[in-house]
Design brief:
40% of the residues lie in helices and 18% in strands. It is of the alpha/beta class and 141 residues long. The chain has a five-stranded parallel β-sheet with strand order 2-1-5-6-7, sandwiched between helices. Strands 3-4 form a two-stranded antiparallel ribbon.
């Protein structure tokens, strides 16, 4: 029981550290307002974050460039938020490592044991099993 409480405290501290970073990329961005890849984008943007939408289709959304990959971004994000299927997350965390990105937040349903393990073994801080929208009170404070 004490170990679980310690893990929860460590996760909360990591989340606070992540949300203190103001430049994020959202991999799995969606133009569909009902999807989390859109909801998270609007919430972070509304809270004053620099948020880069990433989707392999690219394009434009409400005047913002949608980037096809993390490598296309004009600057290295401090945090990458992942909202894609687990099989894709494994590829994304490898791309993060190659680009020197050291903070990854995998939304519930995006994480895989392989992707989490890769982060842990490659000096990438990782938040998983935690929804950004549940913890949005951190970035609104």
């Amino acid at each position: 029981m004490a170990e679980i409480a310690t893990q929860e405290r460590a996760q909360a501290e990591l989340i606070r550290d992540f949300v203190a970073r103001r430049t994020w990329a959202l991999v799995g961005f969606s133009t569909n307002p009902a999807k989390y890849g859109n909801i998270i984008y609007h919430n972070l943007r509304g809270a004053g974050y620099t948020i880069y939408p990433v989707n392999p289709r690219g394009g434009e959304y409400q005047g913002a460039v949608v980037f096809r990959s993390l490598a296309e971004l004009p600057e290295r994000p401090e945090v990458v938020n992942i909202v894609v299927p687990p099989r894709v997350s494994s590829q994304i965390v490898r791309e993060c490592a190659a680009l020197g990105i050291t903070r990854v937040w995998m939304q519930p349903g995006a994480e895989s044991p392989e992707a989490v393990r890769f982060c842990q073994e490659n000096e990438i801080e990782v938040v998983y099993n935690a929804c950004a929208m549940v913890h949005k009170h951190y970035w609104e404070s």
